[in-house]
Design goal:
five-stranded parallel β-sheet; single chain; alpha/beta; 19 strands; about 325 residues; elongated
């Protein structure tokens, strides 16, 4: 375990996917010393292609990240560090009128910076249904704008999660014939059930036993047998699931940053213009700060956070 101490960074970016690399690019082009710490486990690593991103439609997410890293590494003030930031604390930095931050990595390395950008993202909490987790990002999906086109016109499903699932099913139905799987839940109101059925959306109340199909492909949803009969299989090409989310790292909690409650999980509270959190000097971007998750939005948030952190270095904040 190493114990190296470095005080050479203006900004440390925790997380090196779409948001973190976009933030670091702004700081690199401002000629600031920036270190990106990343473990190489982006949230979208399960998807074979990223869709809807400007000029990159259909490209593999990991390839997009690697290309961005190569371009960022060409800037002389950038350090790309493999690893995970496990702790962060505010502290005084010698020679600076403002407090900075100490960050410790999983290998014991200690680094210091004047500003932090948190871009480590979120983890998905998936329903415990046999065959679901291994199809996540392939035929079990969360965003029709990201993956809906590839399954357009085929049989689609939505897994009921809450009252908002009715609107989710209505949205998905614009891509193809849709079934709302209640999975044994009985909270869908009769008026809402009738409204969906009038729109041509099928309601399937039975609990789900498993998802079936070769490899990561989905061919059908097997329902639990009822009344002593055989288990039915509903043919399906893709199932949309509203996964719950939680931060990938505890850094924000360690620093005392405030969170707000979203429909699928907490998200980090930030100023909309600068992306500064409730802790001065700490900025955040990406899925960690959004209720709607999308690669383009994450990148845009990263730009705002990088610019916000740089301008704070210039003007003080």
């Amino acid at each position: 375990m190493t114990t190296t101490t470095t005080q050479a960074f203006d900004v440390i970016v925790a997380g090196g996917s779409f948001a973190g690399l976009s933030a670091a690019m702004q700081l690199a082009r401002a000629r600031r010393r920036v270190c990106v710490v990343d473990a190489g486990q982006p949230r979208n690593r399960f998807a074979a292609a990223s869709h809807g991103f400007f000029g990159q439609d259909g490209e593999p997410p990991l390839a997009m990240i690697e290309q961005a890293r190569r371009k960022l590494a060409a800037y002389p003030t950038v350090t790309l560090r493999q690893g995970t930031a496990v702790s962060a604390t505010a502290q005084h930095i010698a020679g600076s009128p403002e407090n900075g931050f100490e960050v410790v990595l999983d290998d014991g390395t200690t680094m210091e910076a004047h500003k932090l950008v948190l871009a480590f993202g979120v983890q998905d909490g998936l329903p415990d249904i046999a065959g679901l987790r291994e199809r996540w990002g392939a035929s079990v999906l969360h965003c029709p704008y990201c993956h809906g086109y590839e399954f357009a016109g085929q049989r689609l499903g939505v897994l009921y999660h809450s009252a908002g699932s009715a609107l989710h099913a209505q949205l998905i139905a614009d891509w193809g014939p849709t079934t709302l799987f209640l999975n044994g839940d009985t909270t869908l109101e009769s008026a809402e059930r009738e409204r969906l059925q009038a729109l041509g959306i099928t309601i399937e109340p039975a609990p789900i036993a498993a998802l079936e199909g070769p490899g990561q492909a989905l061919q059908g949803v097997r329902l639990q047998p009822t009344g002593g009969g055989d288990a039915r299989v509903v043919p399906l090409a893709a199932l949309y699931v509203a996964a719950t989310t939680r931060p990938t790292s505890s850094l924000a909690e360690q620093l005392g940053c405030a969170f707000d409650d979203g429909p699928m999980g907490p998200y980090l509270r930030t100023d909309g213009n600068t992306k500064m959190t409730t802790v001065p000097g700490v900025y955040a971007a990406g899925d960690l700060t959004l209720m709607r998750h999308n690669a383009t939005l994450a990148s845009a948030e990263g730009v705002l956070a990088g610019v916000g952190a740089h301008q704070a270095l210039v003007f003080g904040n």
